[in-house]
Design a protein that fits this description.
Elements (H helix, E strand, L loop, with lengths): L6 H10 L13 E2 L2 E2 L1 E2 L12 H15 L3 H4 L12 H8 L6 E4 L2 H12 L8 E5 L4 H13 L4 H4 E4 L10 H11 L3 E7 L11 H10 L3 E5 L18 E5 L12 E5 L1 H4 L41 H17 L1 H26 L7 E4 L12 E6 L3 H9 L2 E2 L1 E3 L3 E4 L8 H12 L3
Bound molecules: pyridoxal-5'-phosphate (PLP).
Pyridoxal-5'-phosphate binds next to helix 5 and helix 6.
Length: about 425
């Protein structure tokens, strides 16, 4: 598509947008009486207007039924989590039995590592990306130490080449091949949280399996953002949070994926609790853990229904729209943001003066999702503060990076155009 940097053009795209009615289904924060340009759906997605009613339903059922709500509530709490299996499976490309919603993300990452990082004296290494999200780094470090190994030796970080911002795909594969039979596990963020780079999860999984390692992905920035085919790609495990692209509220519940072949293996070591026990005999309360043959077997506790109600409100919207339409709009929307930034760079900035905007997110749309990250060379946090003051909600990382993620559900092309005007007036 040939883009134009004009209000009329942006409004035309909005007019043609088949998802345009969804913007109105979300609460858009207002500053000084004006709707903000909200570009942080990659950090905390906006609240669907329907969320309050979903949570209220559970509060009312709790008031009305007390403990009997476990079976008599409109959406019985005993099986509340089961409602997510089918729609979440569609979002991440899984079989319904391969996914479950439980706990929070880093908790789940640790639980999955218990099952899929089973180091031996010979095979104990982990391949991950350098500068992974800190929570993931800490989790891997302590998993390794907990197993009696030294993180310096056991954790292999793949970094961008000298002077580059993003990873070369073949460098990940080479690191896996070089680790060979010392490699126990590959655990990478499927979409890098900083650059927005999407990794080739299919090829990484093939490479990991070839050397006998398990392969898992943290999809905090992937779920609800990019096309995922976890089952088909043969990924061993994955986890994600629901409060970023999935709009399920601060600290909302996390989801996990465990491939069918592992779900069927009841001998696989794991941490356990009553909610992972065979549903038919759970309430006999007998000795001896009998895991379910699904991802549900990794559940320990009964469902946190109030946060799950917020998740359900959001997931119902995803299910209604479908990933296909979201992906289609997303490519054009993030492409438009890329175009606007390039346009400002070209017409209003001068690289030789040291002041310019460098897009560090891959230019190839197959290697990115909604997010576009920019290094604002020659600018300080002032620029970000000005943007915020004028109503742009984006994300600043020291010393000079701005992350933005226009999302297809509630952002418009006009948002992107208006952002460009504000940016232009402040550089
Ligand atoms: C957002 C994010 C987290 C956050 O973890 P919580 O347990 O939800 O606090 C962890 N890992 C990655 C890669 C993230 O992007």
């Amino acid at each position: 598509m040939i883009f134009q940097n004009s209000l009329k053009f942006a409004q035309q795209l909005d007019e043609q947008d088949e998802l345009k009615s969804y913007r109105n289904k979300f609460h858009i924060p207002v500053i000084n009486g004006k709707k903000t340009i909200y570009f942080t759906g990659n950090s905390l997605g906006l609240q669907p207007k329907s969320t309050a009613a979903y949570i209220n339903q559970e509060l009312e059922d709790w008031a009305k039924w007390g403990v009997e709500g476990h079976f008599k509530a409109e959406n019985p709490w005993f099986s509340y989590h089961e409602q997510f299996a089918a729609p979440i499976a569609k979002i991440v490309g899984a079989l319904p039995k391969e996914v479950v919603v439980m706990n929070n993300l880093t908790v789940n990452l640790n639980l999955l590592m218990v099952s899929f990082y089973r180091p031996t004296n010979q095979r104990y290494k982990i391949v991950c990306e350098a500068k992974a999200f800190p929570s993931d780094q800490y989790a891997l470090e302590m998993q390794v130490r907990n197993a009696g190994f030294n993180p310096e030796d056991a954790i292999i970080e793949v970094a961008p080449r000298e002077g580059k911002r993003t990873l070369r795909h073949e460098d990940i594969i080479t690191a896996i091949e070089n680790a060979g039979n010392s490699l126990a596990c590959v655990m990478i963020g499927g979409v890098n949280y900083f650059t927005g780079q999407v990794f080739d999860m299919k090829a990484i999984t093939v490479a990991g399996h070839k050397v006998g390692a398990n392969v898992g992905f943290d999809l905090a920035h992937g779920a609800g953002n990019i096309e995922l085919k976890l089952h088909e790609w043969n990924v061993d495990f994955a986890c994600w949070c629901s409060y970023k692209y999935l709009n399920s509220g601060p600290g909302g519940v996390s989801g996990v994926f465990i491939h069918e072949r592992h779900c069927n293996n009841t001998d696989l070591p794991r941490f356990a609790g009553w909610w992972g026990h065979d549903k038919e005999t759970r309430f006999l309360m007998e000795k001896g853990f009998q895991p379910m043959k699904s991802a549900e077997a990794w559940q320990m506790s009964n469902a946190p229904v109030l946060t799950m109600a917020a998740h359900k409100a959001a997931v119902d919207i995803f299910d209604e729209v479908g990933m296909e339409k979201l992906l289609k709009k997303q490519k054009v929307l993030s492409g438009y943001l890329e175009f606007i930034i390039d346009d400002i760079n070209e017409k209003h900035l001068d690289k030789s003066s040291g002041k310019w905007l460098e897009i560090i997110t891959p230019r190839n749309w197959k290697e990115r999702g909604c997010q576009v990250s920019v290094i604002a060379h020659g600018f300080g946090k002032d620029l970000f503060n000005q943007l915020t003051k004028k109503g742009v909600i984006s994300d600043w990382r020291e010393p000079n990076a701005i992350r933005m993620a226009p999302v297809p559900l509630y952002n418009s092309f006009e948002d992107v155009y208006r952002f460009g005007e504000i940016l232009k007036n402040n550089v």
